[in-house]
Amino acid sequence: MSLVGIAAIVGKPLIGFLSDWWGRPKWLTIGILTLFAVMLLVFGTLTDRLAFQIAAPLLGIGVFVYSPLLAVMVAEAAGAALAGSASGLLAGFLAIGQCHCPAGGRCRCSRRPARLWVALATLAAGPALGVVCMLFVQERKSSDAG
């Protein structure tokens, strides 16, 4: 699990820089959420230690790196006057998902013992739904003059 955390620590600032440079947080978010869903599915099928060590950082990127992108898009959509409130609501909704998803995964896994992939496939539904939702988000045009 430390590889997942290291990927998150390195990935969050890097995705911020990439988003600032490229200016397309919507498509970066779709890419990261897709990686998140796919890596959950892949992770559930792995049996080799080396495969886990290779997959863990990719899973870490997917699990943690989308949140700064969402925060930026929500703050921009809300405007400067409501950016704090909107970001706080986003954090609250993310926390609800983080609290309930593991319970749903455990419930699915307990029905089929020793089937980690069933639990991870259940968890992968969240980022997959996020990808679908993101397709309907309209990005604002950049207002930078420089």
Keyphrases for this structure?
mainly alpha, globular
What's this, in brief?
The chain has 146 residues and is an all-alpha fold. Helix content is 80%, strand content 0%.
What can you tell me about this protein's structure?
The chain is built from 6 helices and no strands. It has one domain. The chain is 80% helix and 0% strand. The protein is globular and about 50 Å long. With 146 residues, it is mainly alpha-helical.
Give the C-alpha Rg.
17 Å
The residue fraction in helices comes out at: over 70%
Structurally, the number of domains stands at 1
The largest sheet is: none
Strand content: under 5%
The geometry reads as globular
Number of helices: 6
Question: Spans of 5+ residues with little confidence (pLDDT < 50)?
Answer: none
Series of secondary-structure elements, N-terminal to C-terminal? HHHHHH
Q: Please tell me the overall pLDDT.
A: 81
Give the N-to-C terminal Cα separation.
42 Å
Please describe the topology of this protein.
Blueprint: H1 2-22, H2 25-43, H3 49-64, H4 66-78, H5 83-111, H6 116-134
Helix pairs in contact: 1-3, 1-4, 2-3, 2-4, 2-6, 4-5, 5-6
